[in-house]
Write a structure and sequence with these properties.
64 residues; 78% helix
Length: 64
């Protein structure tokens, strides 16, 4: 899983900054399938934190 290594983690975090809402939703869905293993990984936990922020922003946008 690319989000569990240093470069993959950084890459995913950077791409989430410029992703469309649809792309963010797809990433959120996919990452959540592997959430537990990523939360306990030294680099994956950063992706989980970023996805958590992004998913909250997407959810807030949908609710407005």
């Amino acid at each position: 899983m690319s989000s569990a290594d240093q470069y993959g983690s950084r890459f995913i975090q950077q791409k989430l900054e410029t992703a469309t809402t649809e792309e963010k939703n797809m990433v959120c869905d996919e990452i959540m399938l592997h959430a537990f293993s990523l939360m306990t990984d030294v680099f994956g936990n950063y992706v989980i934190q970023k996805v958590s922020l992004i998913c909250n922003q997407v959810l807030n946008a949908c609710l407005q």
